[in-house]
Amino acid sequence: MKITGVEPFILHVPVTRSKIEDSTHSVTYWGAPGVILDTDAGIRGYGYTGTHAYLPLDRLITDCISKTYGPLLIGEDPLEVQHLWRKLYHFPPAQWVGRSGITHLALSAVDIALWDIKAKAAGMPLWKLLGGNASKKVAAYNTDGGWLNWTVEQLVADARQMVEEQGYRGVKIKVGSPDPGEDLVRVEAVRRAIGPRPRLMVDANGRWDLTTAINTGRHLRDYDVYWLEEPLWYDDLAGHARLARSIETPIALGEQLYMRDSFRDFIQAGAVHFVQADAVRLAGITEWWQVADLALAHHLPVAPHIGDMMQVHLHLTIAHPACSLLEYIPWLRGCFEEPATVEEGFFTVPQQPGAGTTFKPSALEKYGVA
Ligand SMILES: [Mg+2]
Fold this sequence. Notes:
Enolase-like, domain 1; globular; binds magnesium ion; alpha/beta; about 15% strand; single chain; seven-stranded parallel beta sheet; TIM Barrel; about 40% helix; about 375 residues
């Protein structure tokens, strides 16, 4: 099989709740810059990454895909994914300007499209190609009701509805308010609303300094918080290692780490308990799997961050033995041929061949931006 076409696209899709905020970000649209790879076998591979739908930067990602990686891909066999990943990752001009950032996000989209082709060519969903089994239960926790711009009343109403009516196995709420005491009031209110059993996670999105994280974080055990996510600046390895030794609540991070090297260092330093590798921030499925194996070798759970809005990570979570829990955010739900779906708190198993990334033509039409 040969790659015959490299067709980039950019989608900007409105988030479900008009505007969401955490301690660091304010988002009204989710961006999916990506690529369709055509082949001489007629199979089309779809891959994309996740952004804040900021067009000037999304264009840099798709330019990197079409102008830098495209010429390296045309004529190659898309089934040789590991070979192609290395070819693109080690392409000296790209390596020179960025082993993370835009080149990395662009490579993630390409890599995912290659795996999509490989699974379609094999006639099976990606989770099966990667060796998974359909009996694996993937529990879903919901993040789309825990935003920092929600009032306590909204927060409580959403959490209760998600757990009691929709059956989610947990909820995640954002912290990192100007007043950390307010954060604890919100955590307490949600824990009281959902009762003792469902998981409750909190996410500071990198906002706190170490002192705030220690002082606030030590109270989280009172509410049986399952993990504290991104408490400190994303690259502060020493700070996270110190925090992990200072509070009882486990630390989750990884959504802003681009490289397996970073995960290795955080894991070796004892700075992370839940590894939140994201295949659209790492260089695709290929590097994600390397990180998941690394976590497994250290007996750490992998709970993927979902910049792809679950489509790929559902397959990976079914297939990889370090995974059992997956985040749910429905922002791209209407866009796919087979959207990731939760029933009674667990994800249903995708059946269509591929990586779950095939967009509906109507979605490409409706949300595509030039
Ligand atoms: Mg997060």
